[in-house]
Amino acid sequence: MTDKRTVRTWAEVDLDALAHNYRLLRGLAPDSRFLGLVKANAYGHGAVPVAKKLESLGADMLAVACLDEAVELRRAGIAIPILCLGQTPPELASDLLAYDITQTVGDLETGKALSEAAVKAGKTLKIHVKVDTGMGRLGFLWLEEDSAPTDEEEDWAFRQTEVYELCCQPNLHVEGMFTHFANADGDEAYTETQLRRFLDLRRRMEQWNVCPEICHCAASAAVLNYPQTHLDMIRPGIALYGYVPDPSVKDPGLKPVMTVKSRIAAVRELPAGSFISYGCTARLERASKIAVLPMGYGDGLPRVLSNKLEMLIGDRLCPVLGRICMDMCMVDVTDAPGVKAGDVATVYGPGLTDWAAQLAGTIPYELLCQLTPRVPRLYLEQGSAIS
Fold this sequence. Notes:
Layout lengths: L8 E6 H14 L4 E5 L1 H5 L3 H11 L3 E4 L2 H9 L6 E3 L8 H6 L3 E4 L2 H14 L3 E8 L7 E2 L17 H9 L4 E7 L9 H20 L6 E5 L1 H6 L7 E2 L23 E6 L2 E5 L4 E2 L5 E2 L4 E6 L16 E4 L2 E6 L7 E4 L11 E5 L3 H9 L3 H7 L6 E5 L2 E3 L1
Parallel strand pairs: 1-20, 2-3, 2-10, 3-4, 4-5, 5-6, 6-7, 6-8, 8-9, 9-10
Antiparallel strand pairs: 1-11, 11-19, 12-15, 13-14, 15-18, 16-17, 16-19, 17-18, 20-21
């Protein structure tokens, strides 16, 4: 068990908050299955503990980005279905089969190769067909029924029949089909267009007597904004960890799961005119007390937040001064009386993470995912720390 009294910087992961978010999101789509995103180390929160909690709560499926992430969960004892969202080379099909991983397939060539590998192994591989309805990333390209392809686009005309051909490949069980919205937190019309394209293909597949039992397209923004997209399963990511995907999306009462803290290493009194940190980008206009915190970009604190970020120390927001270093940063605590070495600064947490993301010109996802392995995660449940 990690003892926060002995570590320099740590992240507290509140599994009760995770459970709260799970139940809230599940309540928004009571007739849909629930897939929890645990890719990228569960958005920095720790894939195995988060996956175990979601499994205990009753999640129907988990999703990861790559085979290695899936194998980590299986080796940790996770038994519920796991969907690999990213590409897996067909030569690794034996691992997909051995670990019972459901694979995303977005092109016929890969599907045929996976089918061949499954046939050789004498096993059946579960797959979810990915359809590109407007994201422009991965998946079978969707062609409107009334579109006449040009010579340059003639291969598009075969995309729909390619989906059918994929579904006919031996030893592949087409369990699901999905698409991904490009702008569900900003463009309702485009989202509706993507949904219509997806549902059109589903109807076409039914005419082919191919009926995937799980059709899904709703990530966090669509779960919160568009009930009509919930279909057979929802797959929230950032909302599960307590954040809306965009400030324009109404927060239904999510609780941030992670709080990042750092213990002050030293408090120094410096005279007016002193420069702080590399590049001398900050100069004190008055005699000041400067706290040195053992957290830097080596821990995942972005250097771009230099001279911008504020940290909560006691009941005061205290500004970061100077450039953030690899292992340390400096904070002005002149207006926070009584601050001393050993006191704790809250770096990210409720209200703070969103603000830090705005200052960095990014999104909370990135800040949370950037936390490096040397920041230990301390898991809290019902007010107590667990290993």
